[in-house]
Amino acid sequence: MFRPKSTLEQWRIFQAVVEYGGYAQAAEKLNKSQSSLNHAIAKLQQTLGVALLEVRGRKAYLTDAGDMFLRRAKLLNQNMQELELLAHNIHQGWEAEIRLAVEIAHPRRPLNRALQNYYPISRGTHLQLFDSVLGGTEEFIQEHRANIVIAGLVPKGFLGEPLSEVTFLPVCHPQHPMALETGLLTSEELSQHLQIVIRDTAKNPKELTGWLKAEQRWTVTNFHEAIETILSGMGFAWIPQHLVEGFIQRQQLHRIRLREGNERKIFTHLIVPAPERLGPSANCLLECLRLSHPLTASYWLNNKKSAEVELSPPTTAS
Fold first, then answer.
1. 3-state DSSP call for residue 139?
2. Which segments within 133-230 are labelled E, that is strand?
3. If we measure between CA atoms, which residue out of 229, 227, 193 comes closest to residue 213?
4. Is 240 helix (H, G, I), strand (E, B) or coil?
5. Whether residue 168 is found in the same domain as residue 248
6. Which residue(s) pair with 59 in the sheet?
7. Could you say which of 90, 159, 178, 283 has the lowest number of CB atoms within 10 Å?
8. Listed GO molecular functions (predicted)?
9. What is the pTM of this model?
10. pLDDT per residue as tens digits for the range 195-230
11. Domain range holding 288?
12. What is the DSSP letter of 200?
C-alpha cells in the first residue's frame, strides 16, 4: 500500500501561505508560529525535491511548479474537509442517502431549480432520483421506497401538497391524416388511430380508462420516445404541454383539435410517505422543492411567516 511522504497539514500550510500572502499572515490565521510554517514548507519542498515557493522581500511567491501543486493541494484539502464533514453529518443524523421519485409528467424546470438550491446544503448526501409512471409512482408511496415522492395522484391514506398544474395536449405529425382534417375530431374518431402511450412502471400495471382508449397502441418508456415516434409520422399521443409547445410553435408537431376534451389537466403533488422517518437532509430537499414551485411557495412562505408571528413574544403597550 502506498505510504505518503508528505502530510495533509503540510499541504494545508502551503495553501494558507499562498492565499494569505505570506508566512506571517498565514501564521496569524492558523494560530501557529511563523517558524513552524517555515519549517513545514521547507520540509515539504525537501521531501518532494521541488521548489514550491520563493520569498522575495517579505512575501512568498509561487513557482511554476508551485502553481500546479497548489491546484492539487486545494482539491486535497477540500476532499478531506468534505470527508470529515460527511462523518460529522452522519453522526448527527444527517442521511448518507435519500431517494426522490418523480412522476415523469412533472415539469423539470422547477425541479431542477430545487435541486440547484439543495446541492450546496446537501453536505455530501447521495441523492437517488427515480422516474416513475402512474402505478409505479404509487408503489414508491405505498411501499415507502422513497423518502419524497412527486406524484400525479395522492393514494388513500396519504397527504399531498399540490406542486404544479400539468396540461396534456393531443399531438400528431403535421402530415398525419388527423392534422389534415378541417373540422373538429370526436373522441371516437381519435380512438381509430394508433396511440403512443407511456409504460406504467408498476410491477403489475393497470390500464386507466380514458387514457388508453385507442384499439391500436404502442407503448414506450417515456415522453421523449413518444415525441420521437410521432415526429417520424406515426400515431398520436397525449403529451405535457411544457414538452411539446416548442415543437408546435416550430410546426414540427400538430395539436389535434377535438370537439370535446381538447386538453387534460392534472396536478402533481408533493408526498412524504413516512414523515416520521424524514431526516435533516431530506427536510432540506423538501423545503427546496416547496419554494421552487409557485403553487406551494406562497402558501409555504405565508405559513412560515404565520408561525414566526405566533412564536414571537407579544409586545407590551407603552
1. helix
2. 148-151, 160-172, 195-198, 217-220
3. 193
4. strand
5. yes
6. 56
7. 159
8. DNA-binding transcription factor activity; transcription cis-regulatory region binding
9. 0.65
10. 999 998 887 776 554 455 667 889 999 999 999 999
11. 102-163+268-297
12. P
